[in-house]
Amino acid sequence: MHKSKLLLITLIAITLLSGCGKSADTPKDTIDQTKVEEAAVNRDQTDLTIDTPDKQTSETSKKTIVIQGNAPKDAAKITVNDYELKRFKKGQKRWSYVATVRNKTLKEGANDFTIRAFDSEGKEMNSEKISVTYKPETTPILPLVGPNLILMIIGSMILALTGFGLKRVYIIVKK
What we know:
The chain is of the alpha+beta class. It has helices at 2-18, 33-37, 147-162, and strands at 57-60, 64-70, 77-80, 83-84, 94-100, 109-118, 124-134. The chain is 22% helix and 26% strand. A hairpin with a 2-residue loop joins strand 3 (77-80) and strand 4 (83-84).
């Protein structure tokens, strides 16, 4: 029993020190859509604009992006890729759209977004396009270099010396 406790403690220590318990994917892509859409700018705007991302073609490794801009003065409805922005109301000066990997509105590679403004009669007033390329970060969870390699070797040696996990099979041959 003593060997198994020692082995268990050693394995826990190896796991903690090597980072195996860490999550490689810590989601921080929760954005309050209400706060984003409530941003207001005092102006007399007649054109639909995209303020962020600030380029017509941009690249990101973030799992969440916010596309936002100014709405035409008489816009009654704004759509992004045929999705109607539910919180946008006639007379608002700002619009925003949140695209996330989690909601599958942001995928690896090129993502094209077409933003359209419509008047009260449903006629398209203006449209703008933006392309965002999503390239997720690739981080190895447990690289086998430095301290992690040493810990793996020590753990393997302990396992080999204690015979933990191996069942001993004895065959008795009768003559």
